[in-house]
Design a protein that fits this description.
The chain has helices at about 1-10, 30-35, 75-80, 85-90, 110-135; strands at about 15-20, 45, 50-55, 60-65, 95-105. By secondary structure, the protein is α/β, with parallel strands linked by helices. It has a single domain (about 1-135), classed as 3-Layer(aba) Sandwich (Rossmann fold), CATH 3.40.50. The strands form 2 sheets. The chain has a 3-stranded parallel sheet, with helices on both faces. It has 5 helices and 5 strands; from the N terminus they run H-E-H-E-E-E-H-H-E-H. The structure holds flavin mononucleotide (FMN). Flavin mononucleotide binds near residues 66 and 68.
Length: about 140
């Protein structure tokens, strides 16, 4: 299973990840997938100067959802280990081209949720358009 997942990851040019915030971090299932990818000699290695990512050249889109709002305050940013963790681990694998699509405040009532979803959809449209123009 580990070999199948890491091979699939390495062979992919574009990867889309769905990442809800569970207890301030990523869900167990997503962490389990990442743990299968994190293999020395496949997605990273250690050189004389420290870690080297081996899985560069990919485009990763991450759809982030959250019940509360974390992005607008320092306290919130310090508390979330979802976006910050995914940025760190994909960076560790050598992936630098990451686009985060963020919908937060989804449990805070329609007054927050509806505009948050609309903003996320707009971000998706812009990201897709950017890719089409780049192609
Ligand atoms: C087990 C569990 C833990 C959660 N923990 C958090 C959390 O720590 N912070 C937060 O803002 N939302 C939390 N949520 C809310 C989810 O992030 C939210 O439900 C998810 O982003 C998807 O939205 P949806 O329920 O509308 O599909 C949690 C949800 C579940 C099921």
């Amino acid at each position: 299973m580990s070999e199948k997942l890491v091979s699939q990851f390495l062979a992919s040019d574009v990867i889309v990840v769905g990442a809800p915030l569970y207890n301030f971090t990523v869900p167990t299932q997503l962490k389990a997938w990442i743990d299968r990818l994190a293999q020395p000699g496949r997605t990273f290695k250690y050189g004389e100067k420290g870690p080297v990512g081996l899985a560069g050249g990919k485009k990763v889109f991450v759809a982030i959802t959250r019940g509360g709002v974390y992005s607008t305050t320092e306290g919130g940013q310090a508390l979330e280990h979802q976006e910050s963790y995914l940025k760190a681990i994909f960076g560790f694998f050598g992936v630098t081209d990451i686009t985060f699509i963020r919908a937060e405040g989804l449990a805070m009532g329609d007054a927050v949720k509806i505009p948050a979803i609309a903003a996320a959809r707009k971000q998706i449209d812009e990201a897709v358009q950017g890719e089409t123009l780049a192609a």
